[in-house]
Design brief:
It is built from 8 helices and 5 strands, in the order αααβαβαβαββαα. A 5-stranded mixed sheet has the order 1-3-2-4-5, sandwiched between helices. A hairpin with a 2-residue loop joins strand 4 and strand 5. It starts with a helix and ends with a helix.
Length: 211
């Protein structure tokens, strides 16, 4: 304790001397300097430089002077794949009755795809149904929009309570019904019912009929 008391006054004196020396070495700050305005620089022009603008500037269409291919890949909407002829949109009750009579009475291979524009799973499987239609041209896919008022009574008869709903018809009867956006089951069912073997059977039957 005694050693600390001896050292402490010595440290206090050293710090006091350092502060006095440092304060005396500094020059006093001129208060007028704080409020004085800087001198103008002669290198900076007093008048602003003129801004060059094109003579023919169309403000309503700023990109009109550019060629179309310059920005079309970024601003244009993507091109949708063409609809295959075996995809038929159904909007009337008579059209749906005719399609069902072909699938049941004439044993035409058909798929009934019940959908809606507001349905997110329907938008998910829409490209899948289009690709299945392209790969199976011998199968007619009927796209039925449940929001069509003319189909309300017929949809109640068919007991369509959810979308998407897919009915697979083969040889005059409904073989499989898939409710929901189960892409794997839809693809597997399509391949199982209307695969390459079925397509070969249809081709051989047409050849027999022609002979």
């Amino acid at each position: 304790m005694r050693g600390k008391s001896i050292i402490r006054p010595f440290l206090l004196r050293q710090s006091f001397n350092f502060r006095s020396i440092s304060s005396s070495s500094q020059t006093p700050l001129d208060q007028n300097y704080l409020i004085s305005t800087p001198k103008t620089n002669s290198s900076i022009p007093k008048k602003p430089l003129p801004v060059s603008t094109p003579l023919k500037l169309n403000l309503s269409r700023p990109f009109s002077e550019y060629p179309t291919h310059y920005y079309s890949p970024y601003l244009s909407e993507p091109e949708l794949p063409p609809v295959t002829p075996n995809v038929v949109s159904v909007k009337l009750e008579e059209e749906l009755d005719t399609a069902l009579s072909k699938a049941e009475g004439q044993s035409v291979p058909a798929v009934f795809y019940f959908t809606a524009t507001w349905c997110a799973p329907c938008r998910l499987i829409a490209p899948v149904m289009g690709e299945l239609a392209r790969r199976n041209p011998h199968v007619t896919i009927y796209k039925v929009d449940i929001d069509e008022e003319a189909l309300a009574s017929k949809l109640n008869t068919l007991n369509i309570t959810a979308v998407p709903t897919v009915h697979f018809f083969k040889e005059g009867k409904k073989e499989v019904e898939v409710v929901g956006g189960d892409v794997t089951r839809i693809v597997q069912t399509m391949k199982k019912l209307y695969g390459e073997e079925e397509l070969k059977k249809d081709d051989s039957q047409e050849e027999i009929n022609e002979n």
